[in-house]
TrEMBL record:
It comes from Pseudosporangium ferrugineum. It comes from the Bacteria. It holds the Pfam family DUF2784. Keywords: Membrane, Transmembrane, Transmembrane helix. This is Uncharacterized protein DUF2784. The chain crosses the membrane at residues 6-29, 41-60, 93-113.
């Protein structure tokens, strides 16, 4: 039971981290403080994919599999849990392009919303100063 729970937790944490790394910029539109965490998550995803690094969550999943007497899976999380489910095998480049576009859209939207909010604050200060002079 314990090793099965470890595997489920590692896979669940992987999906949550992947979702936040991709879509967290959109959450930052509502909660701006999240943008720093999302940038770190997106950069980590980029490093893992580009450098082909072994993710610590994959290591945990493999330890759980070994604890159950199973062999670790070949490849990483994306190979075993995402490819073939969210995009066809062999189309990683297309999935990566879509992910990059989604992240850039979320960051662009975030920057535009932050600019709009700064301009509103400046305008509100200007209106208050104008009313004070009257």
């Amino acid at each position: 039971m314990g090793y099965s729970l470890l595997i489920a937790a590692a896979v669940g944490a992987h999906f949550a981290f992947l979702a936040f790394g991709i879509f967290g910029g959109f959450l930052a539109w509502r909660w701006p403080w999240l943008i720093r965490l999302q940038v770190v998550a997106a950069l980590w995803l980029l490093i893992i994919v580009v450098a082909g690094l072994y993710c610590p969550l994959t290591w945990l999943e493999d330890r759980g599999r070994e604890g159950l007497g199973r062999a670790p899976l070949e490849g990483g999380f994306l190979d075993n849990h995402v490819a073939g489910v969210f995009y066809p095998h062999g189309y990683e480049w297309a999935a990566q392009l879509v992910v990059a576009v989604l992240i850039l859209i979320s960051w662009t939207g975030f920057a535009l919303l932050q600019r709009r909010d700064r301009l509103r604050k400046l305008d509100a200060r200007g209106d208050a100063a104008d009313h004070h002079l009257v």
